[in-house]
Amino acid sequence: MAFYAYTTYLQKFLVNTSGFSKESASEITALALLIFMLCQPLAGALSDRIGRKPLMVGFGILGVLFTYLIFSTLATTTSPYVAFALSLAGLLIVTGYTSINAVVKAELFPAHIRALGVALPYALANTIFGGTAEWVALKFKQVGHESWFFWYVTIMIGLSLIVYVRMRDTRDHSLIHED
After folding, report:
1. Which of 95, 107, 120, 140 has the fewest CB atoms lying closer than 10 Å?
2. Domains of the chain by residue range
3. Residue spans of alpha helices (H) in the chain
4. What pLDDT does residue 66 have?
5. Do the Cβ atoms of 153 and 49 come closer than 8 Å?
């Protein structure tokens, strides 16, 4: 859900809440997403060295600490440079998850159940949380409590952090070669 909040929804947020033009919001998010994209293989390589768990825990901690602050500051900024820096900061935090989530999911399951083990939870979570992120954000805005969305994202990241802290590092305990 954090991924959708910082990617799909962010451009609308910059227009509807921060007051940027569609063109400026597109430029801000496009540049931030370009840098985000370039960071994915770097973070993946880092996870090969230090493990998957530290990146996911880092995402969880930084996401819990900074998501509300990033969105609330974005809501009041008029500077495209500040908006870019905050957008990029959010995306760099999310990189701790997005750069490795596919390999982590694959490493969790042996080959004979990997497709179901990865696909079903992924599809359900993306449908329930990712797919509704923008709708939830706009509903909160519509009822006059836009900042509740910032807390919602923060809480969801916090719940994921609990999972990351409790799980074994899949780099060291991979089931990818089982069967």
Report:
1. 120
2. 2-166
3. 2-6, 8-16, 22-50, 52-76, 80-98, 101-108, 111-125, 133-142, 147-166
4. 98
5. no
